[in-house]
Design brief:
Its cofactor is Mg(2+). InterPro entries: dsRBD_dom, RNase_III, RNase_III_dom, RNase_III_sf. By secondary structure, this protein is mainly α. Helices cover 58% and strands 11% of the residues. The chain has a 3-stranded antiparallel β-sheet.
């Protein structure tokens, strides 16, 4: 269960005290833990993750719109994608001390799921979903002002390169070439996609991400690196 010291840290560092601590517990409870404690009727974080994903996308979109008026729609979209990708939110989860508070089943604990980036991203989203339900959007914004927004302002996410488009332009400079992305693996919990990139039916690279589009971008980036070295 979420520890007292962690709750104290939330209060002192971020000014957050949950009115409904049940929401806080739910945000840190993995489905594997629920399955191993069925008699206690715990709830896992999946629904809060769903809500938190939408809350964070709206909050980040609003922030980018207001603070980067010089960027066009495409640039804003790519920048937002860089921020909300697995690597971004998992880093914030670690900085906030989330990993140690996650309630995991013994099997997931054994395979090291606590440090899995996709799981940490899910928990970060679930936490913000819980915070939104408990205290509203203003509280979420205040939390992001102390965690996510400073890194945005520092230029951490200004690499807005669209690797899929760049790869397509590189390969099709002399004419049309068949480029195809195929899903190799999809897992619901934690949410993760693995795709393979094929060029003229030849497998060139693979990529993983928290959704299909993110995985495709990773695969395209890997392929671009290969081609640029040739």
């Amino acid at each position: 269960m979420v520890g007292t010291s962690f709750k104290q840290n939330l209060k002192e560092k971020y000014g957050i005290t949950f009115k409904n601590e049940g929401l806080l517990e739910e945000a840190f409870t993995h489905s594997s833990y629920v399955n191993e404690h069925r008699d206690n009727k715990y709830r896992d974080y999946e629904k809060l993750e769903f809500l938190g994903d939408a809350v964070l996308e709206l909050a980040v979109s609003d922030y980018l719109y207001r603070h980067f008026p010089e960027l066009n729609e495409g640039q804003l979209t790519r920048m937002r994608s860089n921020i909300v990708r697995t690597e971004g939110f998992s880093v914030f989860a670690i900085e906030c001390g989330f990993p140690d508070e996650i309630n995991l089943g013994k099997g997931e604990e054994k395979i090291g799921a606590r440090s899995r980036k996709t799981l940490l991203e899910d928990v970060f989203e679930a936490f913000n979903g819980a915070l939104f339900l408990d205290q509203g959007m203003e509280a979420v914004e205040s939390f992001l002002q102390l965690t996510v927004y400073p890194l945005i302002d520092s230029g951490e996410f200004t690499d807005s390169r669209d690797y899929k488009t760049d790869l397509q332009e590189l390969l099709q400079v002399d004419g049309p070439i068949k480029i195809e992305y195929q899903v190799l693996e999809e897992t619901k919990q934690p949410s993760n996609f693995k795709v393979a990139l094929y060029v003229e039916d030849k497998k060139i690279s693979e990529g993983e991400g928290h959704n299909k589009k993110a995985a495709e971008q990773v695969a395209a980036k890997v392929a671009l690196t290969k081609y640029e070295k040739e």
